[in-house]
Structure formats: structure tokens, C-alpha cells
Here is the input.
Amino acid sequence: MKLYELTAHELNEKLTAGEISAQEITESVYQRIDEVEDDVQSYITLTKEEALEKAKEVDEKLANGEEINPLAGIPVAVKDNMCTEGVKTTCASKILHNFEPPYNATVVDKLNQAGTVMTGKTNLDEFAMGSSTENSGFFITKNPWDLDRVPGGSSGGSAAAVAAGEAIISLGSDTGGSIRQPASLCGVVGMKPTYGFVSRYGLVAFASSLDQIGPFSQDVTDCALALNCLCGHDPHDSTSVEREVPDFTEALVDDVSDMKIGVPKEYLGEGIDSEVKEAVQSAIEKLEELGATCEEVSLPHTEYALPTYYLIAPAEASSNLARYDGVRYGYRNEEANGLIDMFKLTRSEGFGDEVQRRIMLGTYALSSGYYDAYYLKAQKVRTLIKQDFEEAFAEYDVLLSPTSPTTAFKIGEKSDDPLQMYMSDLCTIPANLAGLPGISIPCGLDSDGLPIGLQILGDHFAEEKLIQVAYTFEQNTDFNKRAEL
Amino acid sequence: MKIDEATVDKVAMLGRLELDEDKKEEMTEQLNDILEYADKLNELDTEDVKPTAHALPIKNVFREDKVEESLDREEALKNAPECEDGSFKVPQIIDNDE
Here is the structure.
């Protein structure tokens, strides 16, 4: 048994029982990083020195008989689009290659207060735009289950780190599925909380009405512990919701007998691999065996979610990324002739292809003469998508679907066709448009031995129901496997 | 064809991007593919539908009008490519032909 193989709650038990130290846990994770990081490439920046110092602090508290948070001493990786004071935060982009934030994201502060040990900053699709982490401006992260395949994206580094044992928990961001989809492809648990339930302060903005931060973990219990740490109102985030935070560990109940589960037919139709469908059908049957009522339901506007997203998200992104101009931080083209020239050259050299494509698309959708046809139309369709969910949740506790239409695809397989890549988020995008919470948990392997993810969606602030269904499924199956490396 | 190269040029200027010929050609093709895909939304009658900009209700965030701690000037300038006398420094603005 290696310490990096254990979950946070297992490590916490050993830590508080005095069987192990936080420094030993941290050393184990870094030893694992040394072993596999050259292959997997989860991390952009490692923070070993600071990590060992923090672990030592936790050990001193324990030695003093002080009570510690359940996450104290646990190695946590942070996606490199969340600001970390004094630690580079690049968004996997040349334009921010040298950016050292002067402040922490609220979620980073919360993790620090809980006594977690930050292991480093993980790789992502540049500015969180992508579904494979192939759009990173630095290097491609590999899927620990098959190094020839993608880990998913945009939080591919965070998902891969947990799947490979290079972090016990990690943080990702999810704008259109960027937590859930890589969780599915890497066979780990990934949770997107309700929009506004976790602060976005210090998360580098991609699409502000869609972005959310959430955890990756090895099991549902750790996910609940992470949510306990992350959720809550933050005055620094103007869209943060003022709402009492429950103790999510109280939702770790092995029982779905009163649950009414909807299965949207649109998520099991065309475009979903047959093995993914089979695994999800088996999961539904298992939950029925366990006492849940499962029924087919329709969300008729599902097919419009993807085109809606690919108008709204780029529109918001084109505004958000206007701040990268070479003036205050980041890359600047030094040979430019004049200010406008500096803007253009800085941005054209600093941003990768996918980011430029979305800036172009968003600028066009918002521009004079096209706004009504594209952006406004998309916002209206967003209303219809949201209404579909409202009607469904009036009848059902949760909805079940595949997380991803496919298992992990080969590196390079989809990168030449933007539309085909965008299809990777078919099942996850609607939840972002409606601001809903969603969790992905492993529910099987395909014939190539690659993980398949089950997505559970809930109404706003129904995280506890998601955790309960996910926990029950997890306790009664054996799909929480570790990739062999 | 929804968008031609002249429009791509205009949009690139609005977005402060510079695209070489190859990239412009590729971008034009890709944007057309995506916009044609987005045309699917026109299957829906949204005449009486209100737009949703945020999925959950949001409200203005106010606070008392008093001075609070904010980012220190030195820290704000720390990442600047170039600064001078406590200010960000940029290329000359006046007499620019654009």
C-alpha cells in the first residue's frame, strides 16, 4: 500500500490516529509524481518546497493535540487558471507564461485555511477552451489509462493527476463540461456545483455566466469533503449566492429507495457510443434494483444546447479576453509600432488557435448587425433549455445520462475538426446553460479497458441528492478503479 | 457562405487579432462551419421568449462608500512588461496612423 493510493478520508483517519504524518503523505505523492509525471504530464508547475512546509505545519498542529480539518495534510492540485499568490498562473497560454498573481483565488484561500497541501498547478486547454487538453500552449497531458489518448478537457491535467495518483484531490473549472468530461475519460469523480455556490473570484474568466469551480476526487466521500471546503458565499464574487452551506457528508447515505430518477431520452440517442449507452443502461438497472424509480423523460431542446453554447461562450470569452493587451501583465510584443499594433501582435502571438477562433466567433456574434441573429437568439434558446430542466425537476429528484458520448479518444483524432471536438460536450453543456449541478462517476469500462462516466444532474442546490445517488451507486458497485501505470 | 474574408478581416480588427493569409482562409472556413451549425437555432420560434443572460437570479452588489484596502501599487505593477515612475508604460499613442 502506497499513501498516494488512498483517498483523503482514509488518509485523514490514519493521520488523526497518528499512524502517518502529513509529510509522509506529501512525500509519497511527490515520489509518485517523480515516477509517472514524465509520461502523464499533468502539471505545469510543482510546488514541492511549499508543500512540504505546509505538511510540516499540519504535523505540528497534530503534535500539539489540535483538531484538524478533514482535508488538512491532503495533497491537492489546482488547475492553472486559478490565481495563486506568488505561484505562476498561466492558463496554459503563452500570453500569461510569466504571470505571478498578487492574490489568491477564494477557493485557494479556502483550501489553505483547511490545511491542504497544494502540490502544484495543472495543465489545461488554453484558457479552459477545449475538451482534450490538446489546446494547451505548453504540452499535451496524457490519459493515465492509455498514454496514447487524451484525458479530456479543459481540466485534463487535474483529472489525470488524480487518476494517476499525483494528487489526492484536484480543482477544475467547468464552463461546458470541463470537469465532468475529463472525470469521465479518466475514471474519477468530478463535480460541478450549482452556478454561484462556489466563488469564481480569482478564476481567470472564460465565460462568466457559465464558469464554475469544482473538485476531482477518487470517490464520492472525498467529493463531499471538498464541497464542504469550497462552497459558500463570497463578497468578492458578485454572482456568488448567499445561501447556507449544508454538511455534504450527511448526504453520504446508501439509499435511493425514495428517489425518482429521470432518464432523458435525448442523451441516449444518436451520437452516443453503444458501449457508453450499455454502461449507462446497466447503471439505471442497478439503481432500480436498489429501489429507485427510473423513468424516461424528454428534454426537447437538448439538441439546441450545443449551438447555443457555441454562440454564448465565445461571446463572453471575446469580452473577457479583451483584457490581454500586453499592457499590465503577460506577454508583450516588443517590436510593435504603436499601441494598436502592440495589441494585435501581442494577442496574435500570445493566443493559440482555438482561443483565437473563439475570440473571432464571439466578436462576430456580438457585432453590429449580427447580435440579434446570433447572441440574442442563443440567449432566448437558453431560456427554453432552462425551462426543460425546470419541468423535469418538478417531477424527478435527479436526471441520469452519459457524461461523455465517447470514451477517451486518441491524441490527434479530433483536433483538426473543431465541430467534432465540440461534440465531446454534448451531454454536459446543457447543465451549464441552466446553471445546474452535475457529477460524473465511473460506471464501467469499455472493451478497450477505458473508463465510462455516468452523469447525474440535479436541480439548483440539489447537490445533496446528487451525492446520495452517486454514493449509493458507488457503494453497490466496484468501478472506482485506478489506472495502472 | 455566411462570412467572407473581408468580414473576417473586420472581425479580426475588432478583436485586435492579426491573421496571416493561411490562417485567414482556415478561420473563414471554420467560422462558416460553426455558424452554419448555429443556424439550427432558427428552427425554433423564439418571438415571445425572453432571453436568459444568467441561469440564476442575480442582484446588484452594494457596499458602504468607504475606503477599503486594495491592491498595492507596487504589487499591481509587479507583472508589468514595462513601467516607469509608478505607471504602466506603453508605446506612443498620439501620431499613430491607425
Q: What stands out?
A: Helices of chain B lie at 5-14, 21-38, 73-77. Strands of chain B lie at 83-84, 87-88. The first strand of chain B starts at residue 83 and ends at 84.
